From TrEMBL:
GO cellular component, one term: cytoplasm
EC numbers on record: 6.1.1.19
Range of the intact protein held here: 216 to 819 of 819
Family: Belongs to the class-I aminoacyl-tRNA synthetase family.
Superkingdom per UniProt: Eukaryota
Residue span(s) of domain DALR anticodon binding: 488-604
Organism: Gonapodya prolifera (strain JEL478)
Keywords per UniProt: Aminoacyl-tRNA synthetase, ATP-binding, Ligase, Nucleotide-binding, Protein biosynthesis
GO MF: arginine-tRNA ligase activity; ATP binding
Catalytic activity: tRNA(Arg) + L-arginine + ATP = L-arginyl-tRNA(Arg) + AMP + diphosphate
GO biological process, one term: arginyl-tRNA aminoacylation
Protein name stated in the entry: arginine--tRNA ligase
């Protein structure tokens, strides 16, 4: 138990601990059980130190002597006999035998053998992207889409039975204003941003702004807009038709983004829960969970002064009501064992309230670690290069389609520029696929530019710790050097180019060849390949996609070291084995790309 609870939990920011990590890495230590120290402290405080245990080292020795060491004996073992180091660290080394077998198994049976089994078959709902109808889908929604999609892909890779929900803001008081504005425009015949007679709403943002202005300036309009909301909620066919048109127009815009990014979502907007709202409020009232306060129906939870308002004093329902109805539906109808919500951190407090209200109603277990679980995945802001609010040079909101276009165009230019030249960087080897020998058809160029451009935008987002704000910079995300998707795509294409130098069928070879891990670089590469499982576990543990981006970057580094020190083509008895290691690296890289929503390239 001591071992299994002992992940390597040193915080890398502490210089002293960092030194320990560096030292262990140098000594070739793969795992370290470091809780003999804390165990000693606890036992001492509880006056429960066993006889003869006087130091941390003694605790470590006791742990070690109680380990089932059957696996450490004999020839073909998983671990080498552990050693105690320092004041009581138990150092563990994996054997090359087990690594070679594991790599071989992965090549034979597929990379999914490396997926952690813990999540297999679980029913999970993930709520992400979730933009608002008639409003601009902004960079915040882009983050939600990118982060949510990676979490979703990772869960699917682990065999989760997943429902990807787009909780679109398609209901609420703003529709009264929009519908009323549409009918004003239709009457006056002037098309301010929309064409009322066709089935198209030309420019929703323009219309939204104009409607909002009229709403703020014109009391009569305000009153009419309020009436329009009631009509819509009452199911008036004309209102429903206009509402539908507005939603359709937005939907087309959202879909254009999802298509480019390769993101799949099931639309289940706020309006879906509309028929359930009254019942949910009634239920919470009956359960004694909700009570009236200042005319509004509220759920008060422990430790918070502000309640979750589930019915406003004017009788209307809001964001909180919908989220309670959605929670109930996801639990009872979707049978979710885990619900994940991806929004900016600004909504953390809203979700805390919703989750606490769910526990108060006993829809959710009191123990947060028990199933069904709920998690809010918050993220920080996207800032401009100047560290201020992200906007265009003229100060407008950045349109996502334009942003993606620019990323792609820049990549197309880069590829064309480099195709004739050799890409040379100081610390990272030049991709061998570049140079005059690689030629592209226009379709190939378009494909490669899209893969690089969209991949770069995604990777630059995912590699940050999601809670922090980050600066959006095309220059740094499209850099050929360093921790970027472009660099990693090159690294992959470079491996593909190695295979072009041999007549062998490398994938077939990889199915029948157990790699030889004789050189330390081969060993380190194989160890890192096998640690893919840990990267996935870590990602799902704290729902941090950057666990996977740093794993991928490290993999490319380990591969570089291997490739630098171990000749592959023409290495005689090692050639087959090394080709297999190249193939295994390419396979794991591609799986990482896939989980990050990046399209791999075989030549750039
Ligand atoms: N539409 C919301 C927004 O743009 C996000 C919705 C998130 N999901 C939810 N169940 N509340 O802020």
């Amino acid at each position: 138990n001591a071992i299994t609870n002992s992940r390597f939990t040193l915080t890398p920011s502490d210089p002293q601990l960092q030194a320990i990590i560096a030292e262990s890495a140098q000594a070739g230590i793969h795992y370290q059980c470091n809780n003999a120290m804390s165990l000693f402290g606890k036992l001492k405080a509880a006056k429960a130190l066993p006889n003869g245990v006087k130091s941390r080292g003694d605790v470590a020795t006791t742990v070690l002597s109680n380990l089932d060491t059957s696996d450490f004996q004999g020839g073909e073992t998983t671990f080498e006999v552990p050693a105690i180091a320092g004041t009581g660290f138990i150092n563990i080394r994996v054997t090359s035998h087990v690594l070679a077998q594991r790599v071989h198994q992965m090549m034979r049976e597929g990379v999914s053998v490396l997926a952690p089994s813990k999540y297999y078959g679980k029913r999970v709902v993930i709520d992400f992207s979730s933009p608002n109808v008639a409003k601009e889908m902004h960079v915040g929604h882009l983050r939600s889409t990118i982060i949510g999609d990676t979490l979703a892909r990772t869960l699917e890779f682990c065999g989760v039975d997943l429902v990807r929900l787009n909780h679109i803001g398609d209901w609420g008081t703003q529709f009264g204003m929009l519908i009323e504005y549409m009918s004003d425009v239709a009457k006056s015949g002037s098309a301010e941003g929309l064409d009322p007679d066709s089935e198209r709403v030309a420019d929703l943002q323009v219309m939204y702004r104009a409607a909002k202005k009229r709403f703020d300036d014109d009391e009569d309009f305000k009153t009419r807009a309020r009436v329009a909301v009631t009509k819509l909620q009452g199911g008036d066919p004309d209102s429903i038709r206009r509402w539908q048109r507005i939603c359709d127009a937005s939907r087309r815009e959202f879909q254009a983004i999802y298509d480019r990014l390769g993101v799949q979502l099931v639309e289940r907007g706020e309006s879906f829960y509309n028929p359930m709202l009254a019942g949910v409020v009634e239920e919470l009232q009956k359960l004694g969970v909700a009570k009236e306060s200042d005319g509004a129906m509220c759920v008060f939870v422990e430790g918070r002064e502000d309640p979750l308002i589930i019915r406003k004093s004017d009788g209307g329902y809001g964001y909180g009501t919908t989220d309670m109805a959605a929670l109930k539906h996801r639990l009872n109808v979707e049978k979710a064992e885990w619900i994940i919500y991806v929004t900016d951190v600004g909504q953390a407090s809203h979700f805390d309230l919703v989750f606490a209200a769910g526990r108060k109603a006993k829809w959710l277990p009191q123990d947060e670690t028990q199933s069904p679980r709920v998690s809010h995945v918050g993220f920080g802001l996207v800032l401009g290069e100047d560290g201020k609010k992200f906007k265009t040079r003229s100060g407008d909101v950045v349109r996502l389609v334009e942003l993606l276009d620019e990323a792609k165009d820049r990549c197309a230019a880069t590829i064309q520029e480099y195709r004739g030249a050799t890409v040379q960087t100081e610390d990272q080897p030049a991709p061998e696929t570049t140079g005059a020998s690689v030629s592209f058809t226009p379709a190939e160029l378009d494909h490669a530019a899209g893969a690089m451009g969209y991949g770069a935008v995604k990777y630059a987002d995912l590699k940050n710790s999601r809670l922090s704000n980050y600066r959006f910079s095309f220059d740094s995300m499209l850099s050929l050097k360093g921790d970027t998707a472009v660099y990693l795509l090159y690294a992959h294409a470079r491996i593909a180019s190695i295979f072009r130098k041999t007549d062998r069928d490398v994938p077939a070879l990889a199915k029948v060849t157990v790699p030889i891990l004789a050189h330390p670089r081969e060993f380190e590469l194989a160890l890192h390949l096998c640690r893919f499982t840990e990267a996935i576990e870590n990602l799902l543990e704290d729902l941090m996609p950057n666990r996977l981006t740093s794993y991928l970057y490290d993999l490319s580094e380990k591969f570089n070291l291997f490739y630098q020190d171990c000749r592959v083509i023409g290495s005689g008895e090692y050639e087959e084995s090394r080709l297999v290691l190249c193939e295994a690296t390419a396979v794991v890289m591609r799986k990482c790309f896939h989980l990050l929503g990046i399209t791999e390239l075989y030549k750039i």
